[in-house]
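Morning. Coffee machine broken again, so started the prediction first thing and wrote up yesterday's gels while waiting. Chain of 128 residues, entered below exactly as on the submission form.
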Amino acid sequence: MRINVTGVMVDDQAEAHDFYTEKMGFVTKTDETVGEARWLTVVSPGERDGVELLLEPDGHPSAKPFKEALVADGIPYTQFAVDDVHAEVERLKALGVVFTQDATDFGPVVTAVLDDTCGNLIQIATLK
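Came back before lunch.
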C-alpha cells in the first residue's frame, strides 16, 4: 500500500491552481471536469509520477468551519518539504506570499507557515 493522492481543501480551484503552480512551483498532473468541479491535481516538478496533491473543493458543510478553526488556531493543514526553508521563504515573499510564521529553527527542523490564499495555512519544512 502506498499514498498516491492527498488533498488540500480549497475555496476556489482556479485560484488554488494559480497559487500552487505559479507561486509554490508545482506542475499540473490532472485537470478533468467532474460535474461542477474538477479533478485537479498538482505534483512536484522533479517527481511527476510521485504523490499528487488534489486541489479539492471545500463544498462539504463541515469543510469551511474546519478550515477556519485551523487558521484561527494557527495550525497548518499540511506540510511540504523544501531543501532550504530560509531560501524558499525569501523566494515566496518576493512573489507576494504572506507568511504567518517566518523561518524558525526548532532544533532538528526549520519550518515556516504561509497562507495559501484558499483558506489554508501550509507549513514548509527542512530537516537538518
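The chain has a mean pLDDT of 97. Going to sketch it on the whiteboard this afternoon.
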